[in-house]
Amino acid sequence: MNLASYLAQNKLKPTQFAARAGVPASTITRILSGARRPLFDTVVKISEATGGEVALSDFVQPADAAPESTSEPTEADCPAS
């Protein structure tokens, strides 16, 4: 189950859940909006606060499903000629 589904099912606001999980409300809001990927410690706190209903694996994407980078390549990305 993803975090948004968990909050909806349990009728929790992000701020309420953030207090329960012990993380800043802004962190939960950014995770929900997709603006931020959670750090491992945050994922553990979310999983614990949901009793495992939102699992660590719910935050992992397969390598082939990862979003493509939209940034320009840097000199370090290009082989020397």
UniProtKB/TrEMBL annotation:
Q: What is this protein called?
A: Putative transcriptional regulator
Q: Which Pfam families does the UniProt record give? A: HTH_3
Species this chain originates from: Bosea lupini
Domain of life of the organism encoding this protein: Bacteria
Molecular function as annotated in GO: DNA binding
Domain HTH cro/C1-type residues, every copy? 3-59
User: Known CDD domains for this protein?
Assistant: HTH_XRE
Provide the taxonomic classification: Bacteria, Pseudomonadati, Pseudomonadota, Alphaproteobacteria, Hyphomicrobiales
- Note the InterPro entries from the entry: Cro/C1-type_HTH, Lambda_DNA-bd_dom_sf
